[in-house]
From TrEMBL:
The keyword Amino-acid biosynthesis does not apply. The keyword Cytoplasm does not apply. It comes from the Archaea. InterPro entries: Polyprenyltransferase_UbiA-li, Prenyltransferase, UbiA_prenyltransferase, UbiA_sf. This is UbiA family prenyltransferase. GO terms for molecular function: transferase activity, transferring alkyl or aryl (other than methyl) groups. Its cofactor is Mg(2+). Belongs to the UbiA prenyltransferase family. It comes from Fervidicoccus fontis. One of its GO terms (cellular component) is plasma membrane. The chain crosses the membrane at residues 118-136, 148-168, 180-200, 221-241, 247-266, 278-298.
Length: 299
C-alpha cells in the first residue's frame, strides 16, 4: 500500500518554513518529554542548569540527526513520489546549508553534554552514533523500526545521565540510574509506530529492496508487528508505574496511551488510509505520559 502523505513536504515557500520542515521541529515534542521524565525518574535532585543544558542537547541532536537523515536519504527520497517534495530536493534548503546545520547541531549537542557532567560527555557519542546511523538501517535489515525506537529510548537514557552524572561516583552508578523499564517502554512504542509509518512506502521499499516490516511482510504483517511492540511497551509502562511508585495520574495517562496505541492499530486494520492519523496520534502518547510522570514526581 502506498500513501502520499509526508510530514516533511514543503507547502509554503519560505526559508524558515523549509528549515522547520527539514528539521520537523514539532517532533521535538516526541523527544523533550522523554528527556525530562528520564531526569525525574532517577530521583536525584534536578537543577535548572541541568534542565536547560539537557534541552539544548536534545534540540542540537534533533537538528543534527534530522538534517543528516535528509542528506543520507536524498537519493532515495528523490525517487519516491511521496517524499520528492522535501526541502533538500526542492532546493528550498541547499546541501551546503544542510551540512552547516549538521555541524551546528552536533556542536550544540556535544557542548551541552560537556557542560552537564563528565559522564554525560563520555556517554554522549552513544546517542549520537545510534541516531546518525538510523538512515542506513533500512539498507541492511527489515527492522529499522527497532533502530528508531532505540533512538527515542536513548533520549530517556540521556535525560537520566544528565541528572545523575552530577551525583554518582562511577560510570556503573550512572548507568544504573537509568529508568530501564521506561527506557524499554519507549523503545517498543517507537518501534511500533514507525512500523505503521512504513506502510506508506510498502511498494516503493519493495521496488528499491529497502528494509521494513511492511516491505517484507506486507501491511497486515506491519500492523501485527506494531501490535506486538505495543503490547510489550504497555507491559513495561505498567511495570514502570509500579516500580517507581508513580501516582494515579500517571496510571490514568498510561491507560489512555495504551488505548491510543491499540486504537492506532485497529483503525489501520479497518482502513489502511488511517495511517497518517495513527502516526500523528503518537505526539499525544509521548507527551501525556511523560508530563504526568513529571507532575507525580515533582509536585
Amino acid at each position: 500500500m502506498s500513501l502520499k502523505w509526508d510530514p516533511g513536504e514543503v507547502k509554503k515557500k519560505s526559508s524558515l518554513n523549509a528549515i522547520l520542515k527539514l528539521l520537523r521541529i514539532e517532533h521535538t515534542l516526541l523527544d523533550l518529554p522523554f528527556t525530562y521524565a528520564g531526569m525525574a525518574l532517577t530521583h536525584y535532585p534536578i537543577t535548572l542548569r541541568e534542565v536547560v543544558l539537557a534541552t539544548f542537547a536534545v534540540i542540537g541532536l534533533r537538528i543534527a540527526g534530522m538534517t543528516y537523515n535528509n542528506i543520507a536519504d536524498a537519493d532515495i527520497d528523490r525517487k519516491n513520489p511521496r517524499t520528492a517534495r522535501r526541502p533538500l530536493l526542492t532546493g528550498d534548503v541547499s546541501f551546503r546549508d544542510a551540512w552547516i546545520l549538521v555541524a551546528l547541531g552536533s556542536l550544540i549537542y556535544f557542548a551541552s553534554a560537556f557542560f552537564l557532567s563528565f559522564y554525560a560527555f563520555i556517554l554522549s557519542p552513544i546517542l549520537y552514533i545510534v541516531i546518525m546511523t538510523y538512515p542506513f538501517a533500512k539498507r541492511f535489515h527489515p527492522f529499522p523500526h527497532l533502530h528508531l525506537g532505540l533512538s527515542l529510548a536513548l533520549i530517556v537514557f540521556g535525560g537520566a545521565i544528565a541528572t545523575s552524572g552530577e551525583y554518582v561516583n562511577n560510570l556503573m552508578e550512572a548507568i544504573e540510574s537509568v529508568p530501564w523499564t521506561y527506557f524499554f517502554a519507549v523503545l517498543f512504542w517507537g518501534s511500533g509506530f514507525d512500523a505503521i509509518y512504513s506502510i506508506m512506502d510498502e511498494e516503493f521499499d519493495k521496488s528499491m529492496k529497502l528494509g521494513s516490516v511492511a516491505a517484507r511482510f506486507g501491511s497486515r504483517g506491519a500492523l501485527m508487528f506494531s501490535l506486538a511492540n505495543y503490547i510489550i511497551s504497555s507491559l513495561f509502562l505498567l511495570i514502570a508505574w509500579r516500580l517507581y511508585n508513580l501516582g494515579l495520574l500517571t496510571l490514568a495517562s498510561m491507560i489512555i496511551s495504551i488505548f491510543i496505541m491499540f486504537y492506532q492499530v485497529a483503525s489501520c486494520f479497518i482502513d489502511i488510509k488511517n495511517v497518517p492519523k495513527a502516526f500523528n496520534l503518537n505526539l499525544i502518547v509521548g507527551v501525556i505520559v511523560s508530563i504526568c510522570i513529571l507532575i507525580d514526581l515533582l509536585l
